[in-house]
Amino acid sequence: MRRLLYLLTILVIVVGCSPKMGGNIENKNQEPAAKQKPIASSIDLTEVNNDRVWVQVDPGKFDADSVIFRLPRVVQGTYSVSDFGSFTDSLVAYNYDGEPLNVKKEGANTWIIPDASNFDKLGYYVNDTFDIENTDKKTPFSPSGTNIKEDNFVLNLHGFVGYFETLQDQEYRLDLTAPADFKRTAALPVVSTTYNSDSTEVTNTYAAERYFQITDNPMMYGKLDVAEFQVDDMQIVLSVYSPNEKHSASAIQKTIKSMMDAQKDYLGELKTTDRYDIYLYLAPRAKTAPTGFGALEHHTSTVVVMPEAMQAQRLNQSMTDVVSHEFFHIVTPLNVHSEDVHYFDYNAPSFSKHLWMYEGVTEYFASHFQVYEGLQSKQAFYNKINGKIESSLNMNDSMSFTKMSENVLEEPYASNYYNVYQKGALIGMCIDILMREESNGQRSMISLMTELSQKYGTEKPFTDDKLISEITEMTYPSVGDFLKTHVAGNTPINYSDFFSKVGLQRVKDSTKTSLFIKDRTPFLKGNDETGRAEFRDMELNSSLKELGVQPGDIIKTVNGTDYTLQNIRQLIPQSMQWSPDTEIEMVVIRGEEEVTLSGKVGTPMVETLKLTEVEDASEEQVTLRKQWLGQ
Ligand SMILES: [Zn+2]
């Protein structure tokens, strides 16, 4: 009796210092050992406190002096530091008597809990990342970020639920409590559903086999529009959050379905998944909205962030490009990956040498299947490939891809990461052409990846240092030489060598650009030292040249408006409103002096190279091209 009273007193104190610490205090003697009990975690979405939700994590009993609890510093697929611990606060850990323990915080993501054999559970607040992307605080790439808003929760669970260093393989239970009128999409299995007394709140209890599954299964709760449909034997669940209801799941569904039908066809026998979730968050035009557009892959789902203002047709094309890329990640890294990926360390990860494959080949597939399956014309595909060559040349073309990959968090490698989507895809293309040439059209990049996925699959990692020699053994000396010279080595690829095999060539052409942007490459780049934008060291368009702009010029004002890095983004959409006859005046800083440039916008053109078919290509070239492109 006394003990109970004691407990009650403590409970009041507990409630006092961390309002949401729920559940009873457990009896230490009845608590199973940590390795015998699923880790009980919970997130309560019904009581958002100052833009934060309360998260609780309750493991079994430890048999150690101290334990380490962390939130991920890095999550898989992002290749950058996220520091999810830095978005939490007020972490408090309790012993079995309900007394707070003296927890020591180390860095942004680590807490050391003393007296671990008496440690019962801990709780903390999580703040979201979406609405602070435009502040000075460093935030993760939006599709890996978190959102806490009254009508929408983006639950990238790696941003909410942490792990004990010694218990990453332990089973998890996750109780998610939310208002009953919320829609909820989640791929983790629900083991039970309970209601509060007046049925206004619902708690779903999800099960995860280990911490990895917590991080691999994002969820979305709130005001969602959900469409479900079949692609062959695969169930697709498309969840859309469009705050102003500009886009609907049913409108996007058709595009996704025809795209994924084509992807399934392209993948042939390659095993995929029974269910695939697409979470699409459409960002409104607001200072507090996320701006890292794109997507992040998971084994059976993807989180996509796009601007809501996009026109339907453009959104559909972007969804095709982006979601097809994420879905193709089922091939690699999900079915073909190294030990670095398989035993991923969320705190101090090591990186594989083979981003050319994980990201590059995936991006190549996402472009190639569209022409191969007849969703896109050959010329559209050539233009895309050509664009990738041009963008790749803006980065270091002599950097070893394997070296960049292994050191991707550090400079100068980190700033060349974007090349995995450019040159990485071109590497995939070159190997595809070689494979088809050597095998008389019998084998290809996708057939090689299928062979590798049969050899390895989700549960068996390959040895990072052996992959290139292994692929060489499985294929042809020419493929091995290519990988050694242009992927591990630092020799730039001569693309003409590959185009000539399939009767293609790059010819001089002039194309129209926007005043400040060519395809997706702006003529401007930020300069952190001056806090302003400057013209890149590249071939400028005819209009900029006629105005007298020189590479390296720093923009001060345009038509009287002062532009810094804070507002330079507004200049591009504004310039799109100008006609060729619009007169503009631009003041640039050139060295020590300010120069005023003025004139008509005109029609900005650039001299470029265009990838086209050779008219008198040989029969051999045309045959290989047809095998390559399927048309
Ligand atoms: Zn990717």
Automatic annotation (TrEMBL):
Q: Start and end of every Peptidase M61 catalytic domain?
A: 320-427
What domain of life does the native source organism fall in?
Bacteria
Report the InterPro entries cross-referenced here.
PDZ_sf (IPR036034), Peptidase_M4/M1_CTD_sf (IPR027268), Peptidase_M61_catalytic (IPR007963), Peptidase_M61_N (IPR040756)
Q: Which Pfam families match?
A: Peptidase_M61, Peptidase_M61_N
Show where the Peptidase M61 N-terminal domain sits.
42-223
* Descriptive protein name: Peptidase M61
The organism named in the record is Fodinibius halophilus
